[in-house]
Amino acid sequence: MPRLFIGIGLPDTYRQSLNALTKWLSKLTDASVNWSRPDTWHLTLKFLGETEEARIPAIREALAAIHFPAFPVQAGGTGAFPDAKRPKVLWLGLVQGGEQTATLARSIEDALTAIGIPREKKPFRPHLTLGRIRKPAPGDWQPILDAAAAQEWPPFTVPHFTLWQSVLTPEGAIHTPLAAFPAQQVQPPL
């Protein structure tokens, strides 16, 4: 069964900056961190997981019915799940576009619930994963988060969201886009 998720791809400016940032951050800790790779970096709107192949056409149809305007997004600020003292995930937040991203995620939840896919149990928190901590080192991670927060990220416009298939390999996940769902064009008033 294919492993699926829905998300927003990031522009090249973000991907290019990620590699340098994670190399720099990795020098600030002795912990074992699985840093996000530029080629797979994205903002997850909904993780579907292992999905029966026969359900994919209905998922695509439900997602295609979602109407949303293009909106700006800009990364900024950092955090950790569950917190900076016991982190499992290090992330970047959004200083712009968080509300619109959450609205789009709710629309996706509504569309997929209508075809029998359960809602997420945790509330949606828009974020870009910087890394997952495999083996924590003692100490406070706030200095690393503060260092990551110093990186400046330009705003970009979200033109579409994507249904991806994720294949796990020993070298990391390989993400293949299955379908893109464009934002609607807003007509100027006459």
TrEMBL record:
InterPro entries the record matches: Cyclic_Pdiesterase, Phosphoesterase_HXTX, RNA_CPDase
Motif HXTX 1: chain residues: 42-45
Descriptive protein name: RNA 2',3'-cyclic phosphodiesterase
Sequence motif: HXTX 2, positions: 127-130
Catalytic activity: a 3'-end 2',3'-cyclophospho-ribonucleotide-RNA + H2O = a 3'-end 2'-phospho-ribonucleotide-RNA + H(+)
Family in the record: Belongs to the 2H phosphoesterase superfamily. ThpR family.
Role according to the record: Hydrolyzes RNA 2',3'-cyclic phosphodiester to an RNA 2'-phosphomonoester.
Coiled-coil residue windows: none
EC number per UniProt: 3.1.4.58
GO molecular function terms attached to this record: 2',3'-cyclic-nucleotide 3'-phosphodiesterase activity; ligase activity; RNA 2',3'-cyclic 3'-phosphodiesterase activity
Active site feature: H42 (proton donor), H127 (proton acceptor)
Organism of this sequence: Pseudodesulfovibrio mercurii
Origin superkingdom: Bacteria
Keywords: Hydrolase, Ligase
Stretches assigned to the Phosphoesterase HXTX domain: 8-91, 98-174
Database matches in Gene3D superfamilies: Cyclic phosphodiesterase (3.90.1140.10)
SUPFAM superfamilies: LigT-like (SSF55144)
